[in-house]
């Protein structure tokens, strides 16, 4: 028997002044899973997350969080979840230790501030005012605050926005550690490499609708997006050599290097190497790149554009 999902969303709809932000989406998140909600700005990611955590009231739909009907019992849900929004606002003079102690008072159960300071690498900054923390340290504090109540499920809304590469890498490690510790994570992002690295499954949302769901690797494998080929030859080739080969788009010639895309790299390269052998052209370099999650994302979110 499959385990009960930590999140179950059915027919979620939300509109603002008659304009649909979320248009009847459905998805589930399994226990211990890192689930990414991907989409361009304005696609409906943040609205979906805010409906799930109780910051917005859905117009329609079923929301079940940790086995609780989130629309009927929002206060019970809040005891079971942790949330990191895009911006966490704290009083400038408050310290991480004070903030953690304050937040602990909001819940029935809590983790000691000292334990959270150690877990999220804030021991040395425990008594430093928030205004003196770096961006990465503030984000680690936001994560620590989300774990005050020992949550079963954690929501992260664009958690790496504005971070430098080192802070982003550290936050990635913290997110992966959450899964190792048995936590379930939903996070929104528009960084595709981040989703490929961290997520067990993703849902791509565009214009308020989910257009694809699955493991990143499976989505890419099932994609019909073209493979990219780069070939460097001696002597250099002109575009006319490729003209008779079907299905190449576009062909870009740059000195001795040619780049093109094809849906069937094996057939294309077989035909091309046969032609090069006839003309006694040497291949100096050959690279074939499969379609990536970014390629799929761009293709799906371009569909239906005017």
Short descriptors:
four-stranded antiparallel β-sheet; 306 residues; single chain; alpha/beta; 14 strands; 11 helices; six-stranded mixed β-sheet
Task: Walk me through this protein's architecture.
With 306 residues, this protein is an alpha/beta fold. The protein contains 11 helices and 14 strands. The strands form 3 sheets. The chain has a 6-stranded mixed sheet, sandwiched between helices. Strands 2-1-4-5 form a 4-stranded antiparallel sheet. It is elongated. The relative contact order is 0.14.
Principal-axis shape equals: elongated
Q: State mean pLDDT (0 to 100 scale).
A: 89
Biggest sheet architecture: 6 strands, mixed
Number of strands: 14
Question: β content, as a range?
Answer: 25-35%
Helix content: 25-40%
Can you count the helices? 11
> Main sheet: which strands, in order across?
6-7-8-3-9-10
Q: Structural class of the helices, strands and pairings? A: alpha/beta
Supply Rg.
Answer: 24 Å
Given as residue ranges, the uncertain stretches (5+ residues, pLDDT < 50) are none
Order of helices and strands: EEEHEEHEHHHEHEHEEHEHEEHEH
End-to-end C-alpha gap: 45 Å
Give the topology:
Layout: E1 7-16, E2 19-29, E3 34-38, H1 45-53, E4 60-65, E5 68-69, H2 74-78, E6 81-84, H3 96-104, H4 113-119, H5 135-146, E7 153-157, H6 165-180, E8 184-189, H7 192-198, E9 201-206, E10 209-214, H8 216-222, E11 227-234, H9 240-243, E12 252-254, E13 257-262, H10 265-278, E14 282-289, H11 293-302
Helix pairs in contact: 3-4, 5-6
């Amino acid at each position: 028997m499959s385990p009960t999902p930590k999140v179950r969303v059915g027919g979620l709809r939300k509109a603002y002044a008659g304009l649909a932000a979320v248009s009847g989406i459905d998805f589930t998140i399994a226990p211990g899973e890192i689930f990414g909600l991907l989409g361009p700005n304005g696609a409906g990611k943040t609205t979906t997350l805010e409906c799930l955590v109780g910051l917005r009231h859905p117009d329609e739909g079923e929301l079940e969080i940790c086995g609780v009907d989130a629309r009927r019992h929002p206060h019970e849900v809040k005891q079971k979840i942790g949330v990191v929004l895009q911006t966490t606002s704290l009083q400038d003079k408050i310290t991480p230790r004070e903030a953690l102690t304050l937040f602990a008072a909001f819940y029935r159960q809590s983790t000691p501030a000292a334990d959270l300071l150690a877990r999220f690498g804030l021991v040395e900054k425990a008594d430093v005012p928030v205004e003196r923390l770096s961006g990465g340290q503030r984000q680690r504090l936001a994560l620590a605050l989300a774990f005050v109540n020992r949550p079963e499920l954690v929501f992260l809304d664009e958690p790496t926005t504005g971070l430098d590469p080192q802070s982003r890498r550290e936050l990635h490690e913290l997110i992966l550690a959450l899964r190792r510790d048995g936590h379930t994570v939903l996070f929104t992002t528009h960084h595709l490499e981040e989703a490929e690295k961290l997520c067990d499954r993703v849902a791509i949302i565009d214009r308020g609708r989910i257009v694809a769901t699955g493991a990143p690797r499976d989505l890419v494998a099932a994609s019909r997006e073209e493979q990219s080929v780069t070939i460097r030859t001696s002597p250099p080739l002109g575009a006319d050599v490729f003209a008779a080969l079907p299905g190449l788009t576009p062909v870009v010639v740059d000195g001795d290097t040619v780049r093109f895309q094809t849906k069937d790299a094996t057939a294309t390269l077989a035909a091309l190497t046969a032609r090069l052998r006839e003309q006694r052209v040497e291949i100096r370099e050959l690279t074939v790149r499969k379609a990536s999650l970014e390629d799929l994302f761009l293709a799906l979110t371009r569909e239906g554009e005017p």
